[in-house]
Structure prediction request, 282 residues.
Amino acid sequence: MMRIGIRVKLLIFAAEVWAIIFGAYSAYIYYERIEQAQRMGLTTASILSRQIAADRQFYSATVVKRALDSGMKVLGSYHSIEKSIPTPAAFIKEVSESMGSSGGFYVNIVGLSPINPELGVKDEFQKTAFERFIKGHDTRHYEFGKYKGTESVRLMIPDIATSDTCINCHNRAPGSTIRTHKIGDVMGGIEIIVPIESELSYAMVEIGHQIVYGFFVVLTMGIAGLIFIRKVVTEPILSLVETTRQLAGGDLTVASGVSSYDEAGDLGRGTNEVIRNLHGMI
Prediction:
């Protein structure tokens, strides 16, 4: 059977402990930093969604109402028609497009019974969001993933009817499929898409730096631990092994030099006592 010395065993043990600690540290740094980047994107999307929802409610309850009272028209394609203003959906879409061109985010106005068919539900994410909103399970729905080839956070909040102007417009519109809207109903949703790919890339760079830093910290601690174990455990044991080897060879003048006040010192003093007793008997 191959003999493995105590120094090799301690080295193997230290390497295993070091690998476990460093692996756990690296995994924690990775997942924590990725989650931090995602939380930042979600927070940004939440702030934008609340601002856009507030602007939409104000526009619907104040601007649209005054425009209608003065005889103006509220249309989605208002550009070529005199005395007309954009619908709330068109207003939010145009403002969001101008903001998103510099900020890099997207805003989608989605309706359950939209006057403009182009604003209907388009994918499973939006469908799931409306199902949860209508059942009252959530006040927001989000996911992380690819959007137009870029890592992003998608967040949707319900668009609640808050004014008579809003529900009257939808109930009377020629293209509306639902004409029984009332205050408090979920009319649709406001979807915010915030790209987080650049933040994730920066996070990966930081993760690499932190892992390298952690590698040297753990390595330094491991070396210091090995030096301590060698001084306190390995050297006394090897000294006792050498003493007993000389004793087995018949040298009764040998003595252990281990005199520390611990178990190794007790063993050294006991060995010396055995040697003195043998010497006296002989």
